[in-house]
Amino acid sequence: MIEVLWHGRGGQGAFTAARLLGAAASLSEGRYALAFPSFGPERRGAPMRAFTKMDDAPIGDRSAVARADYVVYLDETLLGSGWEHELKPGGRVLVNSAAAFDDERILAIDADGISASFLGRSIPNTVFLGAIAGLCDRVSLQDVGEAIRQYMPEKLHGTNLAIVKEALRRMADASDAVATGQMAAAGIAVESDEGDLRAEDLEAAEGSGSSSLGSPVRPPARICTLRSGDALDPAVFARTTCFEAGYLTAKNAGWRNVRPVIDAAACTGCLQCYWLCPDGTVFKVDQVEPTGAPVAIDLDFCKGCGVCAKACKFDAIAMIPESEADAR
């Protein structure tokens, strides 16, 4: 039996990918698959898991996968210490990242970049269908394509087929690089040049073109200092949030994959973000510095929902990826 463990966040499509992989693996006679999720009542952005089991015989074991042949991380921040305990001997980890990893068992693929190049926003799930098709002989590109055509809305066929083909091509390029000892972090990362999106891939995917990325997020003139915002291990926040006297007591900032940053120069102090934040993480600054903003954000509890950015009519708040924020 081949088992795949998917780690993702609510809204990233981990269960959709698990189901599509199972469908692709069970198209042929005598092939069986099972896919199911594991999550609680959390909101969009909360850590969740999904599982895919593939075999040549009917599958009776419906328990969660503890050790898998392939472990997929749709969000890089979910890859914490002890990841190797979820991996079978000879297994591989696939992680949504443009970074390089020292461990040869971890294969990084810039799924956010690839999907954004075709869809205009980051939806990384189908990228890993192509990646797994390139690694696992249980499924082929044709099987994945047929599963997409059968189980996704027709309007999504073209772009997702193109995404799968592009991911498979990147996997092949990475394998060639490894074979020649020239593997680099950019081996699978999406290039910024638009010419990297091959026209033949789009034509093969039912004639659908890729979506425009649109205008990039305007870099803030100044990012206000936002309390601690310390990085958290997934084990810390992937649990039920507790309340005490009306205040959050458990840090659940790890739910987010984007964070708000405030452009102090553009902020007018209208306090719409302060009033509308569903978790009360926007707070008024007692003593505003000349170059500061009258509000700040408690990153220990901000879950990156983006309500504050949408509420700001002056474009003073931008949502940026956690990886970009860490680099600053």
Automatic annotation (TrEMBL):
Keywords: Oxidoreductase, Pyruvate. One of its GO terms (molecular function) is 4 iron, 4 sulfur cluster binding. It comes from the Bacteria. Residues 258-287, 293-322 form the 4Fe-4S ferredoxin-type domain. PROSITE patterns: 4FE4S_FER_2. The keyword Ion transport does not apply. PANTHER family: PYRUVATE SYNTHASE SUBUNIT PORC. This is Pyruvate oxidoreductase subunit gamma.
